[in-house]
Amino acid sequence: MTVSGAPRTVVVLLGPGVVADAALLAEVTTDTCAALGVTGRLVRADTPAEVSQRLGEVAADPTAVAVVLPGPVPAVRALAERAGAADRTVWYDLSVVEPLPVAPGGVHLAGRGVFGLVWAIRHGYWRVAAPARRVWYGTHPEQWADLRLPATAPPRGGAVLLHGGFWRSVWGADLMDALAVDLTRRGFVTWNLEYRRPDRFGWEVTAADVAAGLAHLATVPEVDPDRVAVLGHSAGGQLALRAAADGVRVRVVVSLAGVLDLAEGDRREIGTGAVTAALAGGVADRPERYAAADPLARVPIGVRQLIVQGQQDDLDLIDFNRRYVAAARAAGDEVTYLEAPGDHFAVIDPAAPIWQQTVARMETLLTGAGEQLRSG
Question: Which of 6, 21, 131, 180 is 20 to 30 A off residue 318, Cα-Cα?
Fold first, then answer.
């Protein structure tokens, strides 16, 4: 989508000592920027002084955004705390590292490999093209939501976004940036929620953060509590359904390629054991935890649901979603099922047909009677 005031250039700055094929990084940069409608270029910087110089050039150009792969050199990494144009700079480490201190307004992402450069570029673009207001619902650095208000009033409703990433800390709320912008442009107040993940803080903390973040939405006066949809992608689909089952006030839950059968996810070791790791044990070891967390074990949840699944996604997720829908309907829940062409990330891509179908059905469910359907 074209956005007025959006950056025109993304400079990906490759610092000294980064272990990656530069040609591949350049290809990712070019392709990702082309999809955003901006010019992208990869620039090498072999010394701390050169990194600082390049950052200064970006700071002097209000139409430019920088994504910095700093590498291991301490003098380069230290620049993150004092470089200018922090609000137009994303620092990204390919490997898993400790959080990098950044200047106010800056951001650090890490641990997503080369694929993560795609998301770092997108985040750098969207945080400038459609800025959000950061709202804190707790005191921890990961207890926040990005709030965006539509240009027209009154809003059509509220949309809470819960990101996925198999409940692992390397993935964050930036995954949902594009959906938040798209929904805001459609007239919704959007609340892109970050939460502490169980790999670092434990399962109970994650569940409590999601509940607290959803409850804090009540402090936003523009939101009608009777017109709120909660949209969760992948692991976020599980979190969204679990929150609704726990009694959070919500009109519609939208699960986008959600992980909706945790017990079988544990047995099949999906996501290289992601379910088992997140819940700190298997279903045989943690039966009470699974009973509370597993969407399939919680039906009926008594809330209108839209379950969305791409046909080119992981076959186990397709299986989980189909069986969840059958069980929820049998238990008496009102469930709309949309299964259509698309992979795991198409469901959070505003340009994808499956998302266009999703948002149309969500809008209908927020305002009127639901329907039971399957698109294929």
Answer: 180
Residue 136: strand pairing partners: 144
CA distance 201 to 116: 23
What would the two tokens of residue 346 be? Answer: 């198409």
Longest dimension (CA), the chain: 65
pTM for this prediction: 0.95
Residue 241 tokens, joined: 């359904």
Distances (CA, A) of 208 to 143, 146, 240: 11, 18, 12
Q: What are the tens digits of pLDDT across the range 287-304?
A: 999 999 999 999 999 999
Q: In terms of DSSP bridges, do strands 335-340 and 304-310 run parallel, antiparallel, or are they unpaired?
A: parallel
CATH class belonging to 9-127:
alpha beta
Q: What is the pLDDT of residue 370?
A: 43
CA–CA separation, 44 and 209 (whole Å): 40
pLDDT for 375 beyond 90? no
- 9-127 and 132-367: same fold? yes
| CA 11/CA 9 separation, integer angstroms | 6
CA dihedral 351, 356, 358, 360 (to 10 degrees): 150
Domain ranges of the chain: 9-127, 132-367
Reference 312, options 355, 337, 342; nearest CA is 342
